[in-house]
Amino acid sequence: MDAVRNHTCHAFGDFEREAIYRAIFTRRDVRSHFQPDPIDDAVLARLLTAAHHAPSVGFMQPWNFIVIRDQARREAVRDLFLTARSQELPHIAEERQALYRKLRLEGICESALNLCITCDRRRSEGSPLGRWHNPQMDIFSTVCAVQNFWLAARAEGIGVGWVSILDADALKQLLGIPDHVVPVAYLCVGHVSEFAARPDLERKGWAPRLPLSDLIMSETYAGVGEDALKAAASASQG
Amino acid sequence: MDAVRNHTCHAFGDFEREAIYRAIFTRRDVRSHFQPDPIDDAVLARLLTAAHHAPSVGFMQPWNFIVIRDQARREAVRDLFLTARSQELPHIAEERQALYRKLRLEGICESALNLCITCDRRRSEGSPLGRWHNPQMDIFSTVCAVQNFWLAARAEGIGVGWVSILDADALKQLLGIPDHVVPVAYLCVGHVSEFAARPDLERKGWAPRLPLSDLIMSETYAGVGEDALKAAASASQG
Q1: What are phi and psi of B177, to 5 degrees?
Q2: B195: closest CA among B46, B49, B35?
Q3: Is the Cα torsion angle A218, B24, A126, A168 positive or negative in sign?
Q4: Other CB atoms closer than 10 Å to residue A172's CB: what's the count?
Q5: For the segment A82-96, what is each residue's pLDDT rounded down to a tens digit?
Q6: Which residues of chain B have a pLDDT value below 50?
Q7: Pairs of residues, one from chain A and one from chain B, whose beta carbons lie less than 8 Å apart
Q8: What is the 3-state secondary structure (H, E, C) of A151-214?
């Protein structure tokens, strides 16, 4: 009983816990339904504070946040996207190219603002705690910041879309990003008229959601077992 | 007024929104205070469901979840950690090595279970939507799944620690992970007797938290401006 009481005291209350799952399950990669209304500085500051409280390897905090509002610059980024999309198209299986062409994949000019979240690779120079074996850990930390931002944004009713179809070198040139800094995520951020009930790519038939129980392995890769957990996972996803 | 009403209807209520920030601000990279009590399958299933609802490039869902409970296997992973730490130590600045040696950096054997979250690079083979220019996007999606898992765990009162001081090839061999799959995160997961008020590395003087306002840039890298946002960020960080 002591152990149970102890566990309970660190867990959130039911209502708070449900709020976390609500943010996680209703977060969307938003490409349409953006509204032009500006985002309050106080709200954007909260989202950036959430990002800044992401875990980071060696407490490196390798991120910077470039806020992009200028329409001409955004149009230039959209041009990079259009070029990149035309370069990516031939690598998509032929029978899926018609669907690919129809997908809406960015809201660069329609959203309230764009945000480029970068990773400064030099910030732990001299003492790379946790990065000697995997130098990519600083990039991973930056991705955790992106996800914190995204979930906080959902709670604030703000849509976020990650535009990955961009040539990184061209983007770096456009935003004056130095060599030692990586633009990890280019985000479209703004109020939206709706959050879709399901991911766009699921609704439009690009790919189905995989059954979670098929993704669980026991002890080793492809190891069988964890039947009770898999059953609970099937029920939980339901 | 219509716009305001519209914004409000997609935002969470104050109490729910505060719960999101509470999870984000009180989440810790846990290396100590783990308790041996098992995690209920229903709870672990909820955490994995949260991970599975992360954003993924091209709705690729590239992740798998290897649940590791066997003590002998965990001891073997800890041996990999000890070797890796001794390899990393000489690359840390000499004046910081004494502190580095004292840091507790893993809870592999003490936590209820370990979880390796992997990325299957082949899952979107044939139609790499969003990955032609940045093939790393599938790894980034997997990191988003890690962060979802981490935040949901905090809400459930479960501690999570990411062990990055490991040789990936040795870990792959130990867990039978095939060539085309990347072990993105090795996590220690379990009930804890406490969540620290601040990150360990901050409390122990490894590094201070950076002022958020110093990390915000306007329009281009190192671009000045966004003074109102920076003031709000300073106030928000508290």
Answers
A1: -85, 125
A2: B35
A3: positive
A4: 18
A5: 999 999 999 999 999
A6: 1-5, 238
A7: 379
A8: HHHHHCCEEEEECCCCCHHHHHHHHCCCCCEEEEEEEEEEEECCCCCCCHHHHCCCCCCCCHHH
Instruction: Say if residue B205 is exposed, middle or buried (CB neighbours under 10 Å; 0-12, 13-18, 19+).
Output: exposed
Contact map slice: B 7-46 vs A, CB within 8 A: 7-12, 15-17, 19-25, 27, 29, 35, 37, 41-42, 44-46
Residue A128, phi then psi, degrees to nearest 5:
-80, 60
Please write the tens of the pLDDT for every residue from A208-222: 999 999 999 999 999
Number of residues written out for chain A: 238
CB neighbours of residue B180 within 10 Å: 11
Looking at this predicted complex, what is its ipTM? Answer: 0.97
Residues constituting chain B: 238
Pairing of strands B158-162, A158-162: unpaired
Question: If you ran DSSP here, which 8-state letter would residue A215 be given?
Answer: G
Task: Check if the beta carbon of residue B168 is closer than 8 Å to that of residue A133.
Answer: yes
Q: Do the bridges between strand B63-68 and strand A216-218 make them parallel or antiparallel, or are there none, so unpaired?
A: parallel
Q: pTM of the full predicted structure?
A: 0.97
